[in-house]
C-alpha cells in the first residue's frame, strides 16, 4: 500500500511543479532566486512631493527585508533645480540604468529641462507619470498619467510605496513571490489627529469626547482649526503641524488638527469638524498648511466655504529646502505660486513661515529623503497673530484699541497723502463709522483732522528741531528713551547692529526731543491717529547714492513697537506706506526681516487702491495685510480749454471757409495760436513750409487731447459715486469697449456697482476678525467685474503672463516702436531698454513680457492650461527685420513676484543670442559674442553668464532705483553725475534662471552703452507725473543710456490705456501736462478735494522736477513757465490753492525756483523774483513747510532771499522763521548781519551751507511762534469752494503776523535800497544758476 502511493505522490509533485512553472514564472521561486533576479532591476523616482520621500525610503527598506534587492534612485524637484553638477550627473546615470522611471508631480519648465535629458538617455522598459496633469500626455515616451499607480501613491505610507515599486518592477519583468500582494491598502483620507491620541478621528463627537476626557479641553475658550495634506500623516512627517497645535494649546486654545487629501475629503473635514450640524462655525480661526486652492482648482467654491466660515484663514507657508531659505535673501521662490498666489485668490491671508524641509541620508540605504521641521519663533509668530485676530472677534468694539495710520513719509507739512485718496476726508469717514459701530472714539470733522495732521500729527526731519518742539507742545505722544532701550535690547543682536551701524547708538537723532522719542499723533478715545514714521531718506546718516539698503531708524522701530504694545489692530490708510518695503527677504519672512519685526503680531488692515495689485501684493506678503481695496477717482473726458479750444475753433473755421483771403487770415491766426501754445515745439512741426501737413498733425493732437480720460479729483474711502460724476464714470467704463458695453443693461449694472459701498463695511468686518471676500486687483475701467470695491485684492498666477491678448498687444507695441525708430533714424535700434514692473504685468497680463519676446524675434508657447512655458523662435525670413537686443530693467517687486517670468525670459534671451545666424540679423548675438570675447580674454570665470545677462534690477532685499530719495532731498546732490551713480549702484544686479542678484555694475554699463531706445507701458489712470516710479525707472534708464552711450537715446511710452499706440515720451508727458496739469477741469477736480487735492498738485510738480533732473531736455522751458502761470500767477487758482493747502502751495513754488536754481529752467529775472516773493510771503503768512527741499536746503533758502524784492522786514521775518525751525541762519542782503531769528541753544549755522540735518537733542526753539513765524495754522471750511462739492477747506493765515505797512520809515528806506541792490544782483547773477 505504502509502496504504491509513493510513485503517485512523486508524479503529482512533478506535474504540479511543471504546471506552476508554466503558468507563472514568478511563483514558488526560491528566496535566492528572488534576490538574484531583483538585484538586476533598478527603479528611478523623480518626485515633486518631498513629503513622501521618507515613506518611500521606508517602503524600500521593507522590500529589502522581504528579500527584494532591486536598486532605488530618487531625486526631488528641489534637488534637480539646484544645478548641482554632481546631482545632475547622478540623475542621468540613474536614468541610464533604470528599468522603470516614475515621474510624480513634475510639470514646471525648469524641472522639465532637467527631466528631459534623463528621458533621452534612458533605456527604461516603463516610464510612468502620475500627478503631472497634461505635461506628458503627448510625449510618446511617457503618455497619460497612470491611474492605478497614482491610486497606490495617494494611499501613501511605507507599505503602499513598497507595493507600488514591486508592481512597477513586476511589469518591467522582475520576479515576485506568488503570494505577493501589490494592490493598494486604502487609507483614511479625511480625519482629525492629535499626537496624544492613538487613533484617527473621523467623527466630531468621538474627537470632542476624547478631547474633554483627556484633559485637553479648555471650557469657554475658542476652537482653532488646522488643515493640511494627509501625506504628512502617512509619511509620519507632522512636526510642523503638531508644533502649531501644541503652541495654541499652551496658550489655552482648543485645537482641531485635520488631514485631507483632495477636494472631497477637505469638504468632508470642514463640514464635519469645522462646522456644526446647523452649518454654524465651531472654530474661530483657521490655519491652512496647504497650497493651491483650498478646493483644488475651484477658487469660487473655496471662497464660498471660507465666506461661510467667516473667520480669518491664515495660509501658513513652508520652504521645500529650509537651508536654502535661510541662506537666501529671496526667501521662498518656487513655492510662491502654489503656496501663496493661489491661496490669495481664495481669500486666505498672511503667508507666515512655519518651517521647511531638511535633508537626511538614510544610513542603511544611502538614500536621501526630506522631512519637515518647525521654526519655533515662526510658529509663535503664526499662533500669536491668529490669536490676535480671534481677540478682535471676542472683544466688544468699545474695548478695542485701534491705530489709524496715514503717510507723511518725507516729513513736512506738504507731504501728507496717499495715491488718489482724499486722506483727511477718508479719516473723518472712518472715525464716524467706528463711532457708529460702537468704538470708543471721538469723531472729527475734516477741518479738525487737518489740524491734527499739521499739528501734533506731523513728522519732522532732524533739520527742523524748532518744528519738532511745536509738534510735542501740540500734544504728540512721547516715549522715554529708557523705555525704548528696554525694547531695543530684546531685538536680535544682528538687527541692533544693523540699525546702529547707520543711525548710531539708540535713540539716534530722528524725532528725539528732550530725552524722549516723539510718536506724532493723538489719542481720540481708543483710536490713535498718527503718521507712519519717515524712512529717513533726507537725513544726513542716509547715504542714498552709495547705499542700496537703508535700515529703519530708531524712531521708526520705536513707533511700531509702541503700537504692538498698545493696540489690538492697525490700519494703514491708502497706497502706500513703507513698512512692507523695508529690507529683508522678499517673501516667507524670518525673525530677522524688518517688515516682520515691525508688524509683529498686530492684525493689519490696509485700505488700498484697487488698480495697484502689484504693490498691494507686497503689503499682503511682506506686511501680512488684509487689503480693503478702494476705487480709483472718477474718470472724465479731458476736453479742450482756453487757447486749445480756440485753436480747435479756428481750425474748424479754416476748413469751412470758402473765401481764400479769409482762409489766409485764419491760417495766420492758427500759426500764432500754435506758437503761443508751444505746440510747434511739442510736435516738431514747421508751420510755414507745409501748413496743411502741420495742420493735420495739430488736429490729430487736439483730438487726442480732447478725448483723453483724466482723473477728476480723488476718491474718498467709503464714499461711492453719485450724480454727474457717477454718470461720467459709467461712460468712461463703457468707452473702453463700446462694442460690447454700449447698452442699457451694462450701464445699469455698472452704475449699481459704482453706487454701492463695501469699503467701510468690509473695513469693519476685518476689525471684527471676520472673513473679507477676495477680489481681483486691476483697473475697473478695463475690468468692471471687480466692482464693487471693498474686497481683499489679489493678483494672479504669474505663469499665465503673457496671455494671448497681452501677446497681441505687446507684439504690436514692439513692431510700432521699431517702425517709428526706423522712420526717424534710418536704421533699426540695436538694443531697446525695457522697464518691467509687477504692477503693469498684473494689470495687463504681461504686455511688456510680450513686447520683449517680440523684440528678440520669439513667440510664447503656452500649455493647455494657458501657462507660458517657453518660446518658439520666429525665423528671420518671417520676422522681416533683425532681432533687437534688449536690456530689461525690473522692479524689486517684479523680482519678488515674477521669478517664474524672469526664468522664462532669461531662457528665451540666451537661446536667441546663441542661434547660428549672421550678427547683422541678430543683434543679441552680435553683442553677446563681443562681450564674451572681452570677458573671456580678461579671464573672468563667469564670462558666459555675464555676456548673456540682459535682466537687471535692484540689490537683493532692496526696492527702487534710489533716485526719488536723492532727487527730492535737494541738499544731497549737486549734479546729474551723482544721480547717475545712484542709479547704477542700485540697478546693476543681474537676474535670470538660476541667477539671483549678481553685483555686476560694469556689465550693466556695457549693456547700457548699446541701448538706442527705452520704453515702458502705461495702461491705467496713472501717468508719468502722479507718481515718482516712472521717472526713477524709465527716466533713470534713459539718463543712464544717454550718458554712457553718448547718444541721444529715444524714449517711448507704450500707451495701452485704450487703443494701444506707441508714443514718444516727450509727446506723452506734454499730453499729460495739457490734459491734466494745465487743464482747468483737472485743477477744479483736485481743488474741490481740498487739502489732499491741493497736495496732489504739488506732488505732480515735484515729479516734474524729477523728470527735469534725470532728463533735462524732456521738460522744456515753456512747460515750467506754464506751471508758474497756471498755479502762481493766476490769482484765482493761487488764492484758492493757498487757502486749501498753503504748504503744498509753497512747496510748488519752491520746486519752480529749484528748477531754475539748477539751470533746469531758463526764465526771466522778473519771473524768478516774483516766485521768490511768493515763496517768502507764503512762509511768512502760514509758517515754514519744512520738508526735504525747503527747510532741509538752506542754500536754496539763502538764494531765494537774494532773489526777492520784498522789504527788509519781510526778509528778516522769513529768515527768523527758518532759523526758529532749523537753528540755521540766513544772510539778509543789506541787513549787515546774518539773521538767526529768535533761537536759543546750539546748532545755529553761520553760513549758507545745506543743513546738516542733525538735531542734537532737539531743544532749539524758544517758543517764539507767537511772533507769527510758523504758528500752527487754523483750518476752517472754505465758503468759496465749488458749489455742492463739500470737499474744500481753507488753511487760514496766522493772525499774529505783523504787517510790513506798520514798520518805521527807516525800514521803508532800507527796503528801497535793498530793492535796487537786489535788482542789480539779479542782472549780475542771471543765468549763473
Automatic annotation (TrEMBL):
Residues 1225-1286 are annotated as: Disordered. Keywords: Membrane, Transmembrane, Transmembrane helix. Pfam families: CobN-Mg_chel. It comes from the Archaea. InterPro entries: CobN/Mg_chltase. Residues 153-756 form the CobN/magnesium chelatase domain. Residues 1263-1273 have a biased composition (Low complexity). The chain crosses the membrane at residues 1306-1325. PANTHER family: AEROBIC COBALTOCHELATASE SUBUNIT COBN (PTHR44119:SF4), MAGNESIUM-CHELATASE SUBUNIT CHLH, CHLOROPLASTIC (PTHR44119). This is Cobaltochelatase CobN subunit. It comes from Methanothermobacter defluvii.
Amino acid at each position: 500500500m505504502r509502496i504504491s502511493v509513493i510513485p503517485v505522490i512523486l508524479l503529482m509533485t512533478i506535474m504540479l511543479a511543471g504546471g506552476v512553472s508554466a503558468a507563472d514564472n514568478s511563483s514558488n521561486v526560491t528566496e535566492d532566486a528572488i534576490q538574484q533576479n531583483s538585484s538586476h532591476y533598478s527603479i528611478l523616482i523623480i518626485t515633486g512631493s518631498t513629503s513622501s520621500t521618507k515613506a518611500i525610503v521606508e517602503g524600500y527598506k521593507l522590500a529589502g527585508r522581504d528579500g527584494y534587492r532591486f536598486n532605488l534612485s530618487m531625486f526631488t524637484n528641489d534637488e534637480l533645480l539646484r544645478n548641482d553638477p554632481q546631482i545632475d550627473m547622478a540623475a542621468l546615470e540613474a536614468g541610464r540604468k533604470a528599468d522603470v522611471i516614475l515621474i510624480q508631480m513634475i510639470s514646471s519648465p525648469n524641472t522639465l529641462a532637467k527631466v528631459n535629458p534623463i528621458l533621452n538617455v534612458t533605456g527604461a522598459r516603463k516610464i510612468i507619470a502620475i500627478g503631472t496633469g497634461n505635461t506628458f500626455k503627448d510625449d510618446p515616451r511617457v503618455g497619460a498619467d497612470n491611474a492605478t499607480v497614482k491610486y497606490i501613491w495617494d494611499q501613501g505610507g511605507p507599505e503602499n510605496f513598497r507595493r507600488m515599486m514591486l508592481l512597477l518592477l513586476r511589469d518591467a519583468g522582475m520576479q515576485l513571490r506568488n503570494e505577493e500582494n501589490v494592490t493598494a491598502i486604502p487609507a483614511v483620507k479625511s480625519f482629525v489627529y492629535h499626537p496624544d491620541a492613538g487613533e484617527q478621528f473621523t467623527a466630531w463627537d468621538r474627537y470632542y469626547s476624547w478631547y474633554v476626557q483627556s484633559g485637553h479641553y479648555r471650557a469657554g475658550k475658542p476652537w482653532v482649526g488646522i488643515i493640511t495634506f494627509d501625506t504628512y500623516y502617512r509619511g509620519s512627517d507632522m512636526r510642523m503641524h503638531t508644533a502649531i497645535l501644541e503652541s495654541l494649546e499652551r496658550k489655552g486654545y482648543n485645537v482641531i488638527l485635520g488631514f485631507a487629501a483632495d477636494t472631497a475629503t477637505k469638504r468632508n473635514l470642514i463640514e464635519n469638524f469645522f462646522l456644526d450640524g446647523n452649518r454654524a462655525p465651531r472654530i474661530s480661526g483657521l490655519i491652512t498648511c496647504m497650497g493651491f486652492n483650498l478646493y483644488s482648482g475651484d477658487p469660487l467654491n473655496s471662497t464660498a466655504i471660507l465666506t461661510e466660515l467667516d473667520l480669518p484663514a491664515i495660509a501658513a507657508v513652508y520652504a521645500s529646502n529650509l537651508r536654502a531659505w535661510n541662506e537666501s535673501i529671496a526667501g521662498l521662490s518656487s513655492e510662491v505660486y502654489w503656496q501663496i498666489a493661489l491661496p490669495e485668490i481664495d481669500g486666505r491671508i498672511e503667508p507666515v513661515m512655519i518651517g521647511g524641509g531638511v535633508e537626511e541620508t538614510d544610513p542603511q540605504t544611502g538614500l536621501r529623503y526630506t522631512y519637515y521641521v518647525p521654526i519655533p519663533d515662526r510658529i509663535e509668530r503664526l499662533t500669536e497673530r491668529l490669536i490676535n485676530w480671534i481677540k478682535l472677534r471676542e472683544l466688544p468694539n468699545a474695548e478695542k484699541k485701534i491705530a489709524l495710520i496715514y503717510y507723511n513719509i518725507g516729513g513736512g507739512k506738504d507731504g501728507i497723502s496717499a495715491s488718489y485718496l482724499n486722506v483727511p476726508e477718508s479719516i473723518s469717514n472712518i472715525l464716524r463709522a467706528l463711532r457708529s459701530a460702537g468704538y470708543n472714539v471721538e469723531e472729527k470733522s475734516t477741518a479738525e483732522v487737518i489740524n491734527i495732521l499739521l499739528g501734533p500729527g506731523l513728522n519732522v526731519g532732524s533739520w527742523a528741531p524748532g518744528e519738532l518742539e511745536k509738534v510735542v507742545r501740540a500734544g504728540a505722544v512721547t516715549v522715554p528713551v529708557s523705555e525704548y532701550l528696554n525694547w531695543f535690547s530684546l531685538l536680535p543682536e544682528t538687527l541692533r547692529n544693523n540699525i546702529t551701524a547707520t543711525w548710531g547708538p539708540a535713540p539716534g537723532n530722528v524725532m528725539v526731543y528732550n530725552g524722549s522719542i516723539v510718536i506724532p499723533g493723538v489719542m481720540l478715545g481708543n483710536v490713535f491717529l498718527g503718521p507712519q514714521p519717515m524712512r529717513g531718506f533726507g537725513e544726513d546718516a542716509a547715504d542714498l547714492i552709495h547705499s542700496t539698503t537703508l535700515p529703519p531708524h530708531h524712531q521708526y522701530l520705536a513707533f511700531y513697537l509702541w503700537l504692538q504694545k498698545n493696540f489690538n489692530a492697525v490700519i494703514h490708510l491708502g497706497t502706500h506706506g513703507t513698512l512692507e518695503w523695508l529690507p529683508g527677504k522678499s517673501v516667507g519672512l524670518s525673525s530677522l526681516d524688518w517688515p516682520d519685526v515691525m508688524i509683529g503680531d498686530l492684525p493689519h488692515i490696509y485700505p488700498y487702491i484697487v488698480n495697484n495689485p502689484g504693490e498691494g501684493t507686497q503689503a499682503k506678503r511682506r506686511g501680512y495685510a488684509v487689503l480693503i481695496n478702494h476705487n480709483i477717482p472718477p474718470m472724465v473726458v479731458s476736453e479742450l480749454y482756453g487757447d486749445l479750444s480756440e485753436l480747435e475753433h479756428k481750425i474748424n473755421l479754416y476748413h469751412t471757409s470758402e473765401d481764400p483771403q479769409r482762409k489766409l487770415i485764419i491760417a495766420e491766426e492758427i500759426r500764432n495760436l500754435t506758437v503761443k501754445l508751444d505746440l510747434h515745439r511739442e510736435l516738431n512741426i514747421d508751420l510755414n513750409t507745409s501748413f496743411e501737413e502741420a495742420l493735420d498733425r495739430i488736429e490729430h493732437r487736439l483730438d487726442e487731447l480732447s478725448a483723453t480720460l483724466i482723473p477728476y479729483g480723488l476718491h474718498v474711502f467709503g464714499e461711492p459715486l453719485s450724480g454727474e460724476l457717477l454718470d461720467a464714470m459709467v461712460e468712461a467704463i463703457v468707452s473702453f469697449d463700446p462694442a460690447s458695453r454700449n447698452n442699457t443693461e451694462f450701464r445699469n449694472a455698472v452704475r449699481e456697482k459704482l453706487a454701492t459701498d463695501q469699503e467701510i463695511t468690509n473695513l469693519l468686518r476685518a476689525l471684527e476678525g471676520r472673513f473679507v471676500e477676495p477680489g481681483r486687483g486691476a483697473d475697473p475701467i478695463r475690468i468692471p467685474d471687480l466692482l464693487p470695491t471693498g474686497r481683499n485684492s489679489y493678483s494672479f498666477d504669474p505663469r499665465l503672463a503673457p496671455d494671448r491678448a497681452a501677446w497681441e498687444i505687446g507684439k504690436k507695441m514692439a513692431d510700432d516702436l521699431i517702425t517709428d525708430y526706423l522712420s526717424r533714424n534710418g536704421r533699426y535700434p540695436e538694443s531697446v531698454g525695457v522697464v518691467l514692473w509687477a504692477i503693469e504685468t498684473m494689470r495687463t497680463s504681461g504686455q511688456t513680457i510680450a513686447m520683449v519676446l517680440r523684440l528678440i524675434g520669439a513667440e510664447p508657447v503656452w500649455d493647455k492650461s494657458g501657462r507660458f512655458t517657453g518660446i518658439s523662435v520666429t525665423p528671420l525670413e518671417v520676422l522681416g527685420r533683425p532681432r533687437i537686443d534688449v536690456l530689461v530693467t525690473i522692479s524689486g517687486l517684479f523680482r519678488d513676484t515674477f521669478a517664474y517670468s524672469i526664468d522664462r525670459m532669461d531662457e528665451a534671451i540666451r537661446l536667441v543670442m546663441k542661434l547660428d545666424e549672421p550678427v547683422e540679423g541678430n543683434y543679441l548675438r552680435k553683442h553677446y559674442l563681443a562681450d564674451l570675447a572681452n570677458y573671456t580674454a580678461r579671464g573672468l570665470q563667469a564670462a558666459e553668464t555675464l555676456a548673456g545677462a540682459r535682466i537687471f534690477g535692484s540689490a537683493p532685499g532692496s526696492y527702487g532705483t534710489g533716485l526719488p530719495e536723492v532727487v527730492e532731498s535737494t541738499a544731497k546732490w549737486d549734479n546729474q553725475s551723482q544721480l547717475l551713480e545712484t542709479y547704477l549702484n542700485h540697478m546693476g544686479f543681474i537676474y535670470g534662471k538660476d541667477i539671483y542678484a549678481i553685483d555686476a555694475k560694469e556689465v550693466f554699463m556695457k549693456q547700457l552703452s548699446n541701448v538706442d531706445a527705452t520704453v515702458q507701458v502705461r495702461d491705467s489712470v496713472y501717468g508719468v507725473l502722479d507718481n515718482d516710479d516712472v521717472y526713477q525707472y524709465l527716466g533713470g534708464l534713459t539718463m543712464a543710456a544717454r550718458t554712457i552711450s553718448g547718444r541721444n537715446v529715444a524714449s517711448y511710452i507704450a500707451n495701452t490705456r485704450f487703443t494701444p499706440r506707441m508714443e514718444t515720451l516727450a509727446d506723452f508727458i506734454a499730453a499729460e501736462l495739457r490734459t491734466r496739469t494745465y487743464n482747468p477741469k483737472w485743477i477744479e477736480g483736485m481743488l474741490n478735494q481740498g487739502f489732499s487735492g491741493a497736495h496732489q498738485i504739488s506732488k505732480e510738480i515735484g515729479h516734474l522736477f524729477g523728470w527735469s533732473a534725470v532728463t533735462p531736455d524732456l521738460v522744456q522751458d515753456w512747460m515750467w513757465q506754464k506751471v508758474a502761470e497756471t498755479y502762481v500767477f493766476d490769482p484765482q487758482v493761487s488764492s484758492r490753492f493757498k487757502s486749501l493747502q498753503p504748504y503744498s502751495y509753497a512747496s510748488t513754488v519752491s520746486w519752480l525756483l529749484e528748477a531754475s536754481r539748477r539751470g533746469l529752467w531758463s526764465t526771466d529775472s522778473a519771473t524768478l523774483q516774483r516766485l521768490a516773493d511768493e515763496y517768502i510771503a507764503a512762509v511768512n503768512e502760514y509758517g515754514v513747510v519744512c520738508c526735504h527741499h525747503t527747510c532741509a536746503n538752506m542754500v536754496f533758502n539763502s538764494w531765494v532771499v537774494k532773489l526777492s524784492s520784498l522789504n527788509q522786514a519781510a526778509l528778516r521775518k522769513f529768515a527768523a522763521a527758518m532759523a526758529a525751525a532749523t537753528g540755521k541762519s540766513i544772510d539778509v542782503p543789506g541787513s549787515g548781519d546774518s539773521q538767526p531769528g529768535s533761537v536759543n541753544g546750539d546748532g545755529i549755522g553761520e553760513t549758507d551751507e545745506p543743513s546738516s540735518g542733525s538735531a542734537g537733542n532737539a531743544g532749539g526753539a524758544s517758543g517764539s511762534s507767537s511772533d507769527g513765524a510758523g504758528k500752527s495754522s487754523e483750518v476752517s471750511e472754505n465758503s468759496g469752494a465749488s458749489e455742492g462739492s463739500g470737499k474744500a477747506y481753507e488753511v487760514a493765515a496766522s493772525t499774529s503776523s505783523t504787517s510790513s505797512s506798520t514798520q518805521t520809515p527807516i525800514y521803508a528806506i532800507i527796503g528801497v535800497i535793498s530793492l535796487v541792490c537786489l535788482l542789480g544782483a539779479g542782472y549780475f547773477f542771471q543765468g549763473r544758476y
